[in-house]
Description:
The structure holds two protein chains of two kinds.
Chain A: E1 3-4, E2 10-12, E3 17-35, E4 47-48, E5 54-55, E6 58-59, E7 65-73, E8 83-89, E9 107-112, E10 117-122, E11 131-140, E12 143-153, H1 156-163, H2 169-186, H3 223-226, H4 311-353, H5 362-402, E13 427-435, E14 438-448, E15 454-458, E16 462-463, E17 469-470, H6 472-493, E18 499-504, H7 511-520, H8 530-553, E19 568-576, H9 582-594, E20 600-606, H10 619-624, E21 625-628, E22 633-637, E23 644-648, H11 658-673
Parallel strand pairs in A: 1-10, 15-20, 15-21, 18-19, 19-20
Antiparallel strand pairs in A: 2-12, 3-4, 3-7, 3-8, 3-9, 5-6, 6-7, 8-11, 9-10, 11-12, 13-14, 13-23, 16-17, 22-23
Helix pairs in contact in A: 1-2, 4-5, 6-7, 6-11, 8-9
Chain B: E1 6-8, E2 19-27, E3 44-52, E4 55-60, E5 72-74, E6 90-95, E7 105-112, E8 122-130, E9 135-141, E10 150-159, E11 162-172, H1 177-184
Antiparallel strand pairs in B: 1-11, 2-6, 2-8, 3-4, 3-7, 5-6, 7-10, 8-9, 10-11
Amino acid sequence: MTAELVRGQNHPLPQSRLEIRVSAGTPMVAAATLGDELGKIHGVEWVAHPGTPTLPGLEVSRQAAADHRLAVDLDAMPEAVHRISVLLALPTGAGGPARFGAVPAPFVAVTGLDGTGIASYTVAGLDSESAVIALELYRRQGAWKVRAIGQGYAGGLADLFTDQGLAEARQLAGGIHEAVAQGLARSVPAPPPRPDGDRSRQPAAPALGPDQGGPTSTTSGSASTAGGSGPVPGSPYGTQTPGIPGQPAPQPPYQGGEGVQPTAPTSGGGIDYSHPRRQTSAPPPPPPTAPPAEPGRPAQPVAGDATGWSMDERLYNQVWGMFEDLARTTAAYRSAVDFAESRMEKELDQVLSDPRSRIGGQGDAAREAAQARHTELVNQAQAALDRDVAQLTAESEVVEPALPPAFARWDNPAWHGYRVPMEIPMALRLGDLHLPECADLRIPMLIRLPLERGLWIDSGRGASLDGSFTDAHDMRRLAMETAVAHAARLLAVYPAGEFTVHVIDPAGSGAQALDPLVRTGVLAGPPATGAAGMADVLARLTQRVDLVQMALRGGAPESLPPGFDTSQQLLIVNDFPHGFDDRAVNQLRYLADEGPAVGVHLMMVADREDASAYGPLLDPLWRALLRLTPVPDDHLADPWVGHAWTYEPPLVPPGSQVLQQVLTKVAEARAKHW
Amino acid sequence: MTKGQAISLQKNDGGSLTAVRMGLGWQAAPRRGLFGSRTREIDLDASAVLFADKQPVDVVFFRHLVSDDGSVRHTGDNLVGGVGQGGDDEAILVDLARVPVHIDQIVFTVNSFTGQTFQEVQNAFCRIVDETNGQELARYTLAGGGAYTAQIMAKVHRSGTGWTMTALGTPANGRTFQDLMPAILPHL
């Protein structure tokens, strides 16, 4: 029976292994501090937070989320610890709500490992606070108890830690928010909401989800609601999944042709009477439908079997649907396996504690039975996963060849028949994603165009996933090659002259990798080297951002100088911060902050360690960028369940001339355009 | 359907159901004459709790609209109810084929989030529909209920290779499904 606590009330804890579950309407940070008999925190190492999620007997999550499960083992607590405070804080700088008064009251429950409720507490009555001590677990005469606290702090985590007597309060609070922001930067942006409307409303305040990062991301939904806003294609499982109305979201869904407009959308102005989600009045051509399935067998998958106003949009939605289905089916598998394991452990514990099991073979029989039950459930889960993965693999096999160049791998024949497009595609493939359970099934990672965030190709060293160690030099070369492959793809999928690439390569170390871009003449100018060249490129782009911003703020985009180049701009920066002085760094930060809104993007090819001398000054810069890696790396989370997906960059197959051919065509078209 | 009654979710032709929908409908509070827009809203919420061996594993409600495995989906919160024509105002869809193998029971509940008891709610019902053909399998009427704010409607549980639905119809009190957990456990 769960005791519902009111503020100040306490309740005994019957067991030492606990879970603290937090459900809130919006993503928040969960942390815990350990205190001694007097309640004093001995130092930052007594705080579990997203940057340091694990302490002896205590684990918190690494990300801000609307739902948390904190694991606590009171027996594993050091003797000196007499108090564990569970904290919640709203993430800063992500554009989300800044005060608890603006979000639904968080609900905190202390449960056993099996989910049995022990005590719960709704942290109500907060207003301008942005951090709160929700609960306290404390030792009293050898026994542990929980008390509802609900003490909020308007000054956030820094004030909270100061109040708890921690000397490094401010630095720690900053570090936590930084760790959370990095978590945001790791995540794949959520898919756009489904285009069809919905009569129902979402009462919880829409907020920045844990899986969406960057101030420019306006996608709806906390973790708990993001699932409802995903594109839901026709079921690939053959079991006709009914159409599900999506959740309304503040982000405008994809509109056919919207992307075609130049970088300067008109601001202000009158009311747009057109339907917000329908731009054409003609109905779209009917999507290809799967032939009726033979009884008892799943339907054959068909490329484009999803909703959308064009084939590209349908394929995009289908790919996102496959992404979500794979995330969810894997979640089902993992959940079943976890359950099987915890049940077996419990049964084995019972066998051990039962004195009868010591007599004869009863204990062995019971152990074997428990193991058999475990094996049976895991096998069933595996069978269900295999069934779903087989279906998704079949779908992937028809979808991949049907993808247009912007969505396709470099080895796709679509690239051999490449022609410079007339329209901006709705999305771009940034690479492939897969999960360890089914490493052969690759989901295209499609992100919407125009880019909402810049890209960061991380050339930081580190052992890659397969354990092989790539040395720093190779890593930098690979990173630059990856950057070139991304830039070439962007150049190729935009109509002639609508995408411009600048390069800063201060020491010329990227010359070899940049060769395909330089030789074909698709760059705006030769890569800038040396201080003067860098300053020139940065000054021009900064001025451009200023100009467009001024024009937009003045409501007069037409007042831009005649002949103004309205194309999207991409600045590739190699070897950062090599060659950067303070002024250049400031300009770069300005571009990262203000650029995306006016079509100026960064692609940093950098190792964050190299820039560590700048300290937290550059944190917002890294945070604003989507981190990609030149080698497979499992740093991206999906927006539904939050699995760690392995990302693989889209590299041109070795020996292939496709990049060269495509860039040659782009260069020809650019020459005609100008 | 009456309390305690169980029906097998097998189709007449012997195949088992693949997808069911639990629909919930109720009539919005009547509008008054002057200042009629100031209605006292009635917000009923449907939730589904997924159990494995009597342990709650996942829950689908207005703040978590899709179970992590994707098998149970809530179509979204309706805060005021409908016009009482019998349509579903909230629905939870269950794709039975995709329910993870360790989940053996799914319990459906209804709570009055705004606190009105079922005595005050008009024309409230709850029904289970075969989603593949729209056929109604079972229907309950909530109205005329007593002074309680929640009801544990039904459970769908594995039996043999298929699924069976059992009507529970147990009154309870609480604002969200969390409050109902103690009342649900005896029915597992």
